[in-house]
Amino acid sequence: MTIDNNSDENNANRNKSSGVYANANSMNSNAMPYVQIESEVPLLPFPRMTPPVSLLNAATNLMPNANNGLHYGTENLDADWFFTEVEIKIKMPEELKERLADDWEAINEQSKLLNIPSRITAQDVVDQYVASKTSRKSVCPANAAIVTEVMTSVVQYFNGMLYANLLYNSEKRQYFEILQKHPNIPFSQLYGAFHLLRVFMNLNSVFILSGADENHKQTVIKYLQDFLKFLVRNKTIYFRMSNFIKASPQYANAAIVAEVMTGVIEYFNGMLGANLLYDSERRQYIEVLQKHPNIPVSQLYGAFHLLRLFKNLNSVITLSVADAEHMQTILKYLQDFLKFVVRNKTIYFRMSNFIKARPQYEFLL
């Protein structure tokens, strides 16, 4: 394919106060593995969001914050990047901000998905850029090695963090379908330029380079910024709205379910110690925290404790969600979740899960 290094197009005017710019700048989610249980519908892995995203607290799904490395507002979209504890700042070109906004609108407002496998993959884009920088006879071998190293790190991050950091909720179901169809193909050879561009909003403590001196730092900045300029020059090739397809309704429903149940898990993790334990369980709770200090309690405690949450969840929703339609959507899926639990009660609620407590557990020290 011939890469056009001089092409340009007129950017469509977009109202930057509409929230699209701000909302188009964060991918926040992680995944947990499948659990084989009875269900009337195909199951998706339970999402574990970092940083927390919740319908229960009416939080905006896709907003910059201090936890995900995004430190910009709607008018200042500079990202902070870190390489071996060296801070590197890269400015996102205005043309690419437009592409991110197009991407966000298509996925989140128009209920579309990107066609996967992509006609031009993320690996293709990176390979074409590296070739453009290393194929000339005049190129310095050291610079060729660095640009290759930097872009290899981008691809490694992309492959390792696609699900956790680079997908919107409504894309998760498609992800697992792609994973089942192409289990041995790296995501960089399946997903395309729009997903690759999302990497540049999330890079944070990613690269481990062999040197961290000032010259090396400036070289890294040079090539990262140059890669973004390369994307700008070729935006009409890489960022085509024709790459989006209309998503079927089940994809949107999967996104809502994921968000609602993520709120449940957030509340569970935050309130277990204060609201969901009997007095005789508190000593065990302290011991569990000491043994597993970095593991969310939702990955340690089970269905009986989760069920206790629903005794006072209504009051939490009432206090957190002002919009009546929003509240009804939440209640709909929470009620459906309880029906799901009923269908699988013999799996989740086994009395054999209980053990005889030692006498010291009867009192909190």
- Average the pLDDT over all residues and give the rounded result: 74
CATH superfamily of the largest domain: MRG domain
Q: How much helix is in the residues?
A: 40-55%
Looking at the overall shape, the CATH architecture of the largest domain is: Orthogonal Bundle
CATH class type of the largest domain: Mainly Alpha
Strand content: 5-15%
Global outline: elongated
Task: Work out the number of β strands.
Answer: 6
Unreliable sequence segments? 1-12, 26-85, 204-211
Instruction: Tally the helices.
Output: 14
Give the strand order, joined by hyphens, for the main sheet. Answer: 1-2
CATH level 3 topology of the largest domain: Enzyme I, Chain A, domain 2
The SSE order reads HEEEEHEHHHHHHEHHHHHH
Through-space gap between termini: 70 Å
Domain unit count: 2
Q: Give the biggest sheet.
A: 2 strands, antiparallel
* Cα-atom radius of gyration: 23 Å
Structural class: mainly alpha
Commentary on this structure:
The chain is built from 14 helices and 6 strands. The protein is mainly alpha-helical. The protein has 2 domains: 86-247, Orthogonal Bundle (Enzyme I, Chain A, domain 2), CATH 1.10.274; 250-361, MRG domain (Enzyme I, Chain A, domain 2). Strands 1-2 form a two-stranded antiparallel ribbon. A two-stranded antiparallel ribbon has the order 3-4. Helix 3 (122-134) runs antiparallel to helix 4, helix 4 crosses helix 6 and helix 4 (141-165) packs across helix 7. The longest helix has 27 residues, at 249-275. The protein is elongated and about 75 Å long.
